[in-house]
Amino acid sequence: MNMKSRLLGMAFAASDVLLELDGESVTFAIGAGPVPGVDPGAAWSGQPLESFLGDASRARVMSAVRALSPGVRSAPVDVEILTGDGRARKAVLRAFLLPDLAPFVSCAVAWQGVAYQAVAPQTEPLLDARGLLKRLSGLLGTGAVPNPPGLSVDFVEIPGLDALDDDAHRNAAQRIEACLQSASLNGASAAKLAPDRFALMRNSTDVVDLTVEIRALGAAEGLDLSAQASRADIGAVEAAVAVRTLRLALSECLKDGVTAGDRFAERLRRTVENADRFRGIVRTRDFTLAWQPIVSLDTRLVHHFEALSRFGGAHQAPTGPIAMAEELGLIEDFDLAVAEKAVSQMRKPGFGLVKAAINVSGVSLGDDRYVEGLLRMTAAAPEVRKRLMVEVTETASVPDLPAANRRLQALREADIRVCLDDYGVGAASLDYLRQLSVDLLKLDGVFAREHQADPKVQALASHLLNLCQELKIQTVAEMIETEEQAAAMKALGVDFGQGWLFGRPAETPVVAAPVTNRRRGEVVGWG
Ligand code: C2E
Ligand code: MG
Ligand code: MG
Question: pTM of the full predicted structure?
């Protein structure tokens, strides 16, 4: 073994970081940084020592260094080392001027106490559960999320923290909360789920054991606190996917009142699995379309069919997977896959001249990809474009209405009709109608269902109908299950109806339910 390694081993036996100064600045640094991810060699070399010392310790350290004489070691100096992200760590520093190396000064730094201590006396207050979700949403698109391995969520439980209402417990709770906040991503991503339960987002590379920190903080107040911590890791995925997946799993847990780390980890694992399965479904096109007729309320003739996606052998309804796909940013690929499937079916000889509506989530109108894709796949089939309509669902998720409108108009210019789905639910509905120019409007099922019983719904519906007539927008009422509902919607002036009364979604576009007048399955024009 060589002497150099021996000496290095001995030096590290008494310290965590070794520094060399040329008087004021660091010329060399090696060892374990104050918090994970800070490499002292990279962070401090070439920097003035003062630049990463806390206010309180700066003068003390510099005067100790300046007072050194060759061969004499300084007294231990208590210092606060800044980590550059609003945190500091307490340490003890000793300086030594080896005659051979003069004027270079050798320093040994040994970390003391907890790794996470806010520099400012007051850290950001902890978030609540809702705040944590908002914080996750706020991270999207900011570039603030660490790259893979990226984000983790730690759940921390400290039994007994809230047991006693005395100064020691209050102080310990305050210190612990500040520690958790400082340990969290950007020092502002920790939440208190209950008085003794916390969740915090952390950089996955940060593996400091918070239970040790918590025990030390409790001990500082004379308390024997124990903590359990568990980590849910998302794995090495792209930052935006990680944030979205965590947000979905977390929101489901919080909705169900789940605050235990192991159950969250289980939920997160399931969310990741479901997302993978959905990606697979999109990739392999392993879903089908069910076709439901939309009829003229006047003649009961089929006007067009709506394509509704179905998953799995049991032709499962899509609400769950679609909501998930919207949350996780997977819906655009799916909407394109639906469009592809519908267009290919519409081009098949047996399909006749049937007109069809496909659903597109408002999320998919957030960029050009969906509209460009749909135009591309119908470019060689102008007759299909004339028979095609898109229904915009989840309008609340349209990120930028003017931009979405430009995209919708590109479709309309290419002879593809546009419909607003589920209209009338949500406070901003009128604004959608103002900002999005469309051909049809589909009244939410609530109108058919509650029109007869609720005078307020009647008043709203009749105003809405007047508005649509003035704007020359045709209307569809959905969820019509009874003749009474059909009659009420017709009396209101609604043009078309959809619902069990006229036909359930079926494998092929056929009319299954009673149709009065004329021949079954006869198709009339869009107008
Ligand atoms: P939506 O577009 O409003 O579709 C109407 C939903 O109401 C369908 O449910 C349909 O089966 C159901 N329905 C039709 N008539 C009646 C009735 O008389 N009574 C009752 N109780 N229900 C009726 P489904 O197929 O489960 O679809 C649910 C939602 O999922 C759709 O609502 C749409 O928002 C979304 N969705 C379906 N397919 C797709 C798709 O390919 N892409 C996207 N982005 N979303 C889709
Ligand atoms: Mg629809
Ligand atoms: Mg609808």
Answer: 0.73
